[in-house]
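Box 3.1 A note on notation
Throughout this textbook, protein chains are presented in two layers. The first layer is the amino acid sequence; the second is a token string describing backbone geometry. Keep the layers aligned when reading.
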Amino acid sequence: MEEAQVARLAAVTEALKFLEGRELIGLGTGNTTELFIKKAHERGLLRGKSLVTTSARTATVLAELGYMDVNVLSVEELDLYVDSADEVDLEGRMLKGGGAALTMEKLLAKHSRLRVFVVDESKLVSKLCVKHPIPVEVLPNALRMILNDLRKLGARASPRECNGKKGPVVSDVGGFIIDVIPPDNMELSEFTKKLKSLTGVIEVGLFLDEADIVIVGLKDGSVRYIRRTRE
């Protein structure tokens, strides 16, 4: 098994213990979350639990294993949310949205009693948004206007293109995804506020205070914790 796979499996296995005693579970989108689902299924840890998904992809993975996902319209608060991230800094701040599910991911994270994020050590960075742009979801009708707004802020931005069809990536909630490189020397918290203030922006892929616990899998098969505000 490759080192990256060893690290991811270690983190996922550690995260399984947070399922105990929690009944309404939110699940993110991506390969690491899918591995978490499959390992939980193998151990029978999802049996009898209510599962809420952030994307059609995650719902499909659950369906293939014989589970039904709960309609998010019936949910007020989750017991646990489990997800991964594209980048994590040493304070537990994250960049997400590589799978274009950032709006639903942030919605479920914001409305969960405990938020656990699982990554392998390759996702650790000393500074966010150096390797990857910030995913921003926007209303389709606002695309050109927001691109212009971003230029005025000193940011560089471009619509994310689809693989398999021409045109912008469309999320599960119907927004277009823009990938944004922030201006130099602007704090990410400040830039997030500016982005959220733009009419037509749905959500921003900076998760600066959504993680209670980040579990980092290491290539030797051990794990380390980055803890945040709640246990």
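The domain at 134-205 is CATH 3.30.70.260 (Alpha-Beta Plaits). The radius of gyration is 17 Å.
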